[in-house]
Amino acid sequence: MKNTGIVRPLDLLGRMVIPKEIRISLNIDAGDKIEFFIDVETKLMIVQKYCGVSCKMCNSPDELSYFKGSLLCKTCMFDLKENIGVSKIPIAKEMKNIEKRAYKTSDQMLEQLRELIRKYPNAKLRDYAKWLEVSNGRVSQLKKLL
Fold first, then answer.
1. Model confidence over 87-142: pLDDT tens digits?
2. pTM (2 decimals)?
3. Does domain 1-50 have CATH number 2.10.270.10?
4. Beta-carbon neighbour count of residue 72 at 10 Å?
């Protein structure tokens, strides 16, 4: 398990906001259902995107079978067996053309934030977040480091 270093408070109704960086890494979008797991002894809570009781491939709830840790419907198992709709996985040469999100180190972001503050001293936190392409919380963390 990885410590993100991100801390969020609960509001008066006991709600919290899941940081954008975590939502991106877990592929969670607005409106997705979230599933909670807890370990009472260690006081650990785990959150994951809810997939429910449905086929892993087509989300159908009908005629399910358990196969290698996933639920698959009869139709998808037949399609896999007959190679219907199966596509070739791109090899490394083809994957070089796929654009990846560029991650910046904390030092790089600190330097960029320092320059933005010098250039726009009266800008709001959300403006800095937009320019740096990070969340408001991350900008707040970086400001504390300055």
1. 777 666 555 666 666 677 888 888 989 999 999 989 888 898 888 888 888 888 88
2. 0.38
3. no
4. 22
